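In this notation, each integer encodes one residue's backbone shape. One such record reads:

___
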Amino acid sequence: MRIENFEDLHKAIISVHEALKKTEDYPESVEKIEHWLNIPDEVYGDFLESGMDIASTLHDADGALPLHPAVAELLTSIYEKGIEKGNSAAACDLGSLFYTGRAGTQDYEKAAHYYHIADKGGDRQATENLGYIYYYGRTGKRDYEKAFNYFIKGALDGHLRSLYKVGDFYKNGYYVEKDEKEAFRIYKQCVDMLSDESVPLVGADIYMRLGDCLFEGCGVERNILAASRYLSAAENMFYVRLMEGDFYQKRNLEHVLERLAEIRKIVKEEMLPDLSWAGYDE
């Protein structure tokens, strides 16, 4: 669909609403669409700005499912129009649809293409996303130098994911000289920078890393109980993110659960005192 003006946008929203009403699988998307349908026309500003606002509310709605085809088409149309107008956020968001495959097709090459457009436009989320593209070699061979530079760029702009990924480079000795104390310092800095808004988004990743360091004695004196506190907090947050559809966290949750099992075994076998003298019979 082409969206060139408010009339096109309004027709597209109505069409998407009709498509969504044919299924009960997308209640959050229906709610978001109906909210916009109930806003008086005179409240709208620029049609593209309004379109981006609508797209932002639908982008993560019903996150445990792939986007409904009608929603995917709407978002793609809005983002493509935004890119034509030089909107870097639109390029980043379209890239994310290709990165996750949530709009129907996973294509890392296209994701990187749109992230590069957005990065050049100053979108630091796209900058961070490019770090992941090169860190994991999504479009070919891993390139830690490029990944590090993109993460540094994102970290300097206040992105906590970028900052803790810089910590990962120092912890593992990727591209930079291995420095476990520096890695722990960076992870601790991330904890100190967490806010009420950022905790649900990145708290689990940061707590997991800090917990791992405390468990391993990596850059800090080993502290099993402190590690347990951070890892337990990460566990609960990963559950929430998985329920919201962030499937990339499945492996992280598995790691946290395995590590917590190790901690419980250590505590039981090595740290708890022998209280048999008290006559307690299990």
Notes: DSSP finds 13 helices and no strands in the chain. The CA atoms of residues 17 and 33 lie 6 Å apart. The domain at 159-271 is CATH 1.25.40.10 (Serine Threonine Protein Phosphatase 5, Tetratricopeptide repeat). The radius of gyration is 23 Å.
